[in-house]
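Incident log, entry 3
Record: Peptide ABC transporter (517 residues)
Problem: checksum mismatch between cached and fresh output.
Input:
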Amino acid sequence: MAAPALHLCRRHLLGAAGGLLLASAAPGLAEAQAPPRKGGTLRLAAPFNPSSLDPVTGGAGSDHMVLYPIFDTLVDFEPGTLAPRPGLATAWDYPDPKTLVLTLRPGVRFHDGTPMDSAAVKANLDRARTDDRSSVKGDIQSLASVEVLAPDRVALHLSRPDTALPLILADRAGMMSSPQGFARGRAYDREPVGTGPFKFKRWADNDVVELMRNDDYWNRDLPHLDGITFRIITDLNTGLRSVIAGENHGAYRLNPQQKLVADRMGAKVVVSSTPTIADYHLVFNYRRAPLNDVRVRRAINYAVDRDAFNKAALLGLGVPAQTMLPPGYWAHDESLNNFYTHDPDRARALLREAGHASGVDIQFFGNADQASQQRHEIIIEQLRQVGIRARLTAGSNADMYQRFMIQQEGDMIMTLWTGRPDPALPFLLVYGENGFNNAGKVPPPPEMVAAQAEAQSATDQAGRKRAFAKLERLALEHALSCELAFVPGIEVFSPEVRNYTPNLLGKPKFGDVFLAA
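Fresh output:
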């Protein structure tokens, strides 16, 4: 007799994303004070130039803020809990452990007029898992094939059970592009065509990205705005000043230093500051010496004073980190909160054991803006005290990512890991063999591969939590990265910005925003 089918529906997954509830946004942002007003262009100070506007080929987490208005995802998420909710797929179901069936929203069209149907979903997912330039292959490793069942139903056949997949499809892999659009190849990096509330207008590198209203959006209540303009301003202080001066309506991904300034502005601006699962971390290329030696990687983890970093770089507003899952988050093992303490003597002993009694040199990559430089200097000094000489190479976010992750230059880079809707993704993308943040593409230890599979196959939260505890401990034991501190999501807006809701990822979405008269 056949085994009973596993029916893990959307409602069964809601509990798996709970915990670490998001605090409310500042008054006047999350709750509309007046009926939504149509019209106006939202002007935003964006701290990064995009790496690409093709969700499949880009890699920087900072791209999401520009991608979200252009691209709907197959599955969406609740901003305060990251629980899954309908997106382009209105329902999903596992008729058996290795099949996920999506029911699609009817009547949706891409910005170029082509239908967003099951054939388009198949074309998108096939491209995401097979294209040579795809940066999301690691996200959907479990996806073996895609079958069109009907114009509004598609079956995802898996090589192994994967209960994380619905929320994986709430990220880049689930952002649906027009097949006619991505057929243009590399040109599509700069000419995106999605189904979102806004259509692409133009992108001038390191200057501006302009979006315009999608009049044919499937949600007839949206968008409220005529357009969104992302003005690229890499200096955060300048970005904040542009909001205070009325040149822009908002600035996002700000640091605590800018929050202190904004707090003194009174009614001129509205400040939103909420917890996130985003953290600063040091990513290693452990294919090459000296970081191919676990003792050197552990020495870095013991050399770093996370409390001092939080106080100096984040003014104490962050939370010291051990793994990519924060304290209080449902998937985190609280027993690991002090796995690596600040222990310079132990760091020096590990370096001597690794044959570096006179110290060791590493090439350290990072962003060139003033705040990033401060963070780098804190880490460089902490490492210097144990004999690790970190030589800094700094540049733009996109350039540093390209050189470190793609060209495999350098030994270590500091990045802001912005998290993903499902906690399985950080481990896949940072430590997985095909993960785009695994610079050396080194396969993780076999026991970590097993724990990853367990985290993505368990059908209940307790089972997933046990698997994540194994993943966290193994990442720490092998010192595969060095987590520093979780950051608050800080955005500053002019008072006329309404209906903004922050999310736990710390990646703002602006599709619901309107401008008060």
